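Researcher: Next entry in the queue.
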Amino acid sequence: MNTSSTRVSALIRRGTVAVVVALVAILGSTNISASAVSTPESSLTSAWLASQVGPTGEVNISGSTQSVVTQTMYVAQGLGATGEHRDALDRAMSFLSLGTSIDEWVTNDGSGGTVAPPGADLPERLASLILLANTTGSNPRSFGAPAVNLVARAQAMYGLVVPGFYGYQEPWSSVQDQSLMVIALQAVGATPPAAAIDWIVEQQCMGGTTPQSSLGGWQASRVTVGNVLQDCGAPDPLSYSGADTNSTAFAIQALQYLGRTASVAAAATFLQSAQATSGPNTGGFPWFSGGAVDANSTALVLQAITAMGQSPSMWSVAGATPLAVLQSFQLLSPAGDAGSLFASWNPGVPDLLASYQGAWGLTLTAFPFPVLAERTAIINPIAAPAFTG
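Model: Structure for this entry, 389 residues:
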């Protein structure tokens, strides 16, 4: 799910990452979240995502440079947020529960620009699968065939390289990775250590030589030199550096969910400073302040807004809300593309990353996804073993 990293390679950046909330009991503990909001726009996107799922669960969009497993995971995350088209979601989960699919999604195959060595588990991917398994009523401690304990694998990553951090610190996504991991573990009753939350808090761009334009936000990863955490730089949409809206949105969701909210007010101020106040997408959000507004960033900030208990109307600029801006990225024709969202750098063309993350924002949900109502049957159980749960 790596929002920042998947989008870097699609744009010259990689891309990912979130949503929820109703009263949900998970493993004996109660977590408060907000229900997804179904609208004509979100239902249209959900229908487009569902239409990409094949009879045996795979998603294989013609011309896509992403693997079949990655495409299927993206679609499943979008459908998990909306809670619609359960037949398609169940088929996708059956495919994702195969041992080969799990390993391909979770482990580093060595083809990307990651710090983690080949074969190592990637924290954002493992966390996103735990969240998705939990959402769909599966058991993340015994997931797939053969059964895999995803939670144990996640916990084994703690402090592996850096104290308080899960796995390897990727320069494009460390804050997102850690945020998703602590949310996922908390959601399934495996409360992360306080030091893991402290790591997120300490990464916030505050004080020192940090420029005003980054104060309160989070950048993807801060460098440590001689055990000293270096200050943040100014947001730069050309070099993809400095505090950004995506990392900040993930951090807000984690801190809200884990009850560490002291840093959130400053983060909200940072997001407001990054919001577009002019141009065709006024009211939306760029990845970095001063850059082009895009569907993914706007959707992720909508999740953060929801996590803070606020309404998109409270973030209106010149009469335009972030939700209305996100909706403007949705294609309505031709019929085969209707419901998909396009990337700002490729107008008019369906983009899977923008579409599945766009569904998160369109439904006004925040991580973790709400657990969906139990179903008694898996579609096409012969083609692939049903996921357990």
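Model: The beta strands are 24-26, 29-31, 224-225, 228-229.
Researcher: Noted, moving on.
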